[in-house]
Amino acid sequence: MKNTTLKRWRNVVAALVVGALSASSAFAQETTLKSEHGATPEPIQEAVLDKLLEGVDVCAPPKGVDEEYWASLIPEGNEITPERFALGKKLYFERRLSSDGTVSCATCHDIKRGFGDARATSEGVGDQIGNRNAPPTFNVTFLHTMFWDGRSPTVEHQAMQPIVNPIEMGMPLDPEKIIAGIKDDPEYKAMFQAAYGRDVNYPDVGNALGVFERCLVFLDNPFFRYMNGDEDAISQDAKEGWKIFNNQGRCASCHQISPSNPVGSNNKFHNIGVAAHNQDFETMAARALAALESDASESAVDELALNSDLSELGRFIVTKNPTDIGAYRTSPLTNVGVSGPYMHDGSMETLWDVVDHYNKGGIPNRYLDGGIEPLNLTDRQVDQLVAFLFSLTDVRFADENAKEFAKQRSAAAKSRPERDVDVSTRRVLSFEKFDATAAKKGE
Ligand code: HEC
Ligand code: HEC
Questions:
Q1: pLDDT value, residue 440
Q2: CA 263 – CA 287 distance, rounded (Å)
Q3: How far apart (Å, rounded) are the C-alpha atoms in residues 164 and 166?
């Protein structure tokens, strides 16, 4: 990467300023304060996290979530305990789990950057860049699968993958080598024993990280307060936006929001026309099938998804089902105000871009979901829908959310394509001519 040194220095300076405000004690640890890959130094992130979780009993069901529902989401054998949470938290910030010692989970899921990295796609060991946007690590307990394409079944399982991905943390596929950097550390030895009654081992690294992430619940947002009867919690615009979300915008057909589905994902996979930029999906699909024929191991699939030009096939790589070409898991929407840029490839900078995308009916392609159609929303309605989306951010991120709203609004004012074009007058989109029967027969 060009300019990396410069960029890093800028980040170090920025981090020091932040550090001075939020974690002055971290100054003592000069070496660990170094910023890598543009992320906030781990000790500063940790201090910010402690502040965010102040007064929260992480082992109790989160506020506002039904106790039984919460219990049903926690896997048997990996119940939440303070010891497991503490271990997972330490591991989350642990760079010794990466091959060159520069990357931890917190590099790409930076507490100060909405638990993501504020980039389109992520940078790992050796400054290598992958093909996917880093989604936030909060509220993941409510999702039925992990990753944009759902290739991992649980939070615990997911946590083991980035460690061995060659462009993320880059460790060899060998459980012993993975833990080599931490297994003789007396602090870790004691913490693994206290958490799981076992010595330091790789599967428990995944388990502990899972517990830690499951406790990162950020659902206390103005919109939920409004739904619970506080009329003044959100603006009039956001209230109108909520109506559009459920009606003309058709958003709720995939992003259902309810007490039993607070994050707003149906947990299904759809091609909404994001991956369709100049793709020859058929040729790519044939190449992917050939690659999977020779190696369909977990790590091979992970590399196809993240490190290869076949990434844009989305869910297809997991299921080999043609209807899953270019399909991704419906994104959760809580805290979406602070977790940009958006979509699996980070291709959309603002929530205005996102709503514009839906308003024009996505990018046409043979595999576009039937639920994606031009919406004919006016500019006023687009603004209202965006106002609603920003009301889904937890009050603990209120400052960042307000800043991001202002930043996105001004970016959108400059960058948006021609507004006020009547979408209903556009010519027929190619997916409307698509012959599904012929496609099934492979014609
Ligand atoms: C180099 C950057 C990078 C590092 C390091 C990294 N991640 Fe990620 N993470 C990503 C990207 C990119 C994705 C999306 C990949 C995909 O969907 O194909 C992701 C996805 C996830 C998800 C899925 C969330 C969802 O909505 O499905 C979780 C959870 C997660 N990472 C946790 C972790 C943990 C725990 C670690 C440390 C062991 C870690 N990540 C290390 C970049 C990173
Ligand atoms: C057919 C199902 C479907 C409909 C309808 C739908 N979405 Fe989505 N939404 C998705 C999927 C799938 C993704 C992830 C797509 C990708 O990354 O390629 C997504 C992603 C998003 C994201 C990005 C989140 C992030 O963190 O990157 C936002 C915001 C969003 N949708 C809002 C909306 C709004 C607002 C509407 C209504 C105008 C809407 N969606 C309608 C399925 C849908």
A1: 36
A2: 35
A3: 6
